[in-house]
Write a structure and sequence with these properties.
376 residues; alpha/beta; Rossmann fold; Arc Repressor Mutant, subunit A; 3 domains; four-stranded parallel beta sheet
């Protein structure tokens, strides 16, 4: 990423944010760009509708052959897809009536919204959006001889269905869609490398399978440990909800998520979290400068810096007015890398060139290092 100057700033100006979603990716990317961020789009999965809908059609017909006791909706998109397919086969009204005579369970607000939009009403929906809670609720009921419909999401809920069958239930699994590898694996590999080098400031995730796929790509590149370290220390992982975040938590990575599992809420959480972590406000020559992410902001102007130059400026900004030695800059900006004093000098020279009229902000202190020339 080269240096650039823009005249439009927003709360996320200066931040590079990875987007791994496949559904509503364009909407999420637009929301972030509208707030000034630069977005790296790399969907880590793709949704494949069943090429052969024989299994779905057969499962739907099974639902119509007798009364249903429980119906489990796991995703909004899956439920809508099922209802739409049934309508196309002429079974829409019959399927709705069959579900209306059953106890309907929904996993989270999206599934609940889809259920209600189809004219039905859920009896129970767990607050955590966890399939485990749905299963626990069901297992407290008498299931022997009961007919339970489970709408799958992405991958078959084998443990879920198996537990119900062990209790004597007849389980009808509804295979609406499945997850597969990304359309552009090279884009995912590049995002993995950028994350490992800490060249992105945040990663957004809207599904647990997307996280698993991203970490699998990191492992295949030999970068899993580096990526996890970056996510723990420098790159903020923002998830749509706690269920989505589970693969990160299992890997020892704390994530943040909004109270409501919506894209707008996710972006709002990101907008509140990133500047609070690293925003630096400086005063030089009586003018206020703001360093956030990889940009230096002065009023409505923003100078975007390449990762190394931004890291040098940040290291100086953490001790404004104080001398930072070349050795300390080497440790901070090039940890464990092959670099020397000449590398530091060259990076500072490029940083001054990028800052243009504000190059005087960086003072050289002979034989000692560099400091930011800020007002007292």
């Amino acid at each position: 990423m080269g240096t650039s100057t823009t005249a439009a700033t927003g709360p996320l100006t200066g931040y590079v944010i990875g987007v791994t979603a496949v559904r509503r990716r364009e909407e999420l990317a637009a929301l972030l760009r509208r707030r000034g961020a630069r977005v790296v789009e790399a969907p880590t999965m793709r949704i494949i509708p069943l090429d052969d809908d024989t299994a779905l059609r057969h499962a739907t017909q099974s639902c119509l052959t007798g009364s249903l006791d429980y119906v489990v909706a796991t995703t909004g998109v899956g439920w809508r897809g099922w209802m739409s397919a049934a309508e196309g086969w002429g079974h829409g009204a019959g399927l709705a009536d069959a579900c209306r005579g059953a106890v309907v369970l929904s996993r989270g607000p999206k599934a609940t919204g889809a259920v209600r939009a189809s004219g039905l009403k859920e009896t129970y929906s767990p607050g955590t959006e966890a399939s485990d809670e749905l299963l626990s609720w069901l297992l407290t009921r008498e299931l022997r001889g009961r007919r339970v419909v489970v709408q799958q999401h992405g991958a078959p809920l084998e443990g879920f269905a198996a537990a119900l069958r062990e209790r004597g239930a007849e389980v009808i699994e509804i295979p609406v869609y499945r997850w597969a590898g990304p359309d552009d694996p090279d884009a995912v590999r590049r995002l993995v490398e950028q994350t490992a080098r800490r060249e992105v400031h945040a990663m957004t995730f809207t599904s647990a399978p997307a996280i698993t796929s991203f970490l699998d790509f990191a492992a295949a590149a030999g970068l899993r440990a580096d990526v996890l370290a970056a996510l723990r220390e420098a790159v903020v992982p923002v998830c749509v909800g706690p269920l989505c975040a589970r693969p990160l938590e299992e890997a020892g990575v704390p994530a943040v998520w909004p109270e409501r599992g919506r894209l707008g809420s996710l972006v709002r959480t990101l907008t509140e979290t990133l500047p609070a972590r690293d925003r630096r406000v400086l005063t030089a020559g009586g003018r206020t400068l703001v360093l956030q992410g990889s940009a230096l902001l002065a009023g409505d102007d923003a100078v975007w810096l390449p990762p190394v130059q931004a890291a040098v400026l940040r290291a100086l900004a953490e001790r404004p007015g104080w001398v930072v030695s070349r050795g300390e800059l080497l440790r901070r900006v090039w940890p464990g890398g092959r670099a020397d004093d000449h590398t530091v000098e060259a990076a500072v020279a490029r940083l001054r060139g990028a800052l243009g009229p504000r190059a005087k902000l960086i003072h050289t202190v002979p034989k000692r290092g560099y400091r930011l020339a800020v007002d007292a």
